[in-house]
């Protein structure tokens, strides 16, 4: 999957069941390998998703759970259970 970082800015993040998680805020990467590690998501208002880890008010979602990127960033809810 080849995507330019600037095209991801402020995309809506959804779970595979259609639940709105929030807006993509940032991405973390391993600087040595270039591998993407996590997406950092600003939660939507009144959103509480127990499967997701929260740090400093943001959801931290392993990039390996990202299922697709197009108009939205879709996270595979089943894969979240492994993390």
Secondary structure blueprint with pairings:
Elements: E1 12-15, E2 20-29, E3 36-43, E4 53-55, E5 58-62, E6 66-69, E7 72-75, H1 77-80
Parallel strand pairs: 1-7
Antiparallel strand pairs: 1-2, 2-3, 3-5, 4-5, 6-7
Averaging pLDDT over every residue, what do you get? 89
Q: Count the strands?
A: 7
Whole-Å distance between the termini?
22 Å
C-alpha-based Rg, rounded: 12 Å
Helix content: under 10%
Q: Within the CATH hierarchy, at the fold level, what is the topology? A: SH3 type barrels
Catalogue the unreliable spans.
Answer: none
Helix/strand order? EEEEEEEH
The coarse silhouette is globular
- Identify the CATH homologous superfamily: PRC-barrel domain
Would you kindly provide a written description of the structure presented here, covering whatever features stand out?
The protein is mostly beta strands. It has a single domain, classed as PRC-barrel domain (SH3 type barrels, Roll), CATH 2.30.30. It has one helix and seven strands; from the N terminus they run βββββββα. A seven-stranded mixed sheet has the order 4-5-3-2-1-7-6. The longest helix is centred in the last third of the chain and has 4 residues, at 77-80. The two termini are 22 Å apart. The model has no long low-confidence stretch (mean pLDDT 89).
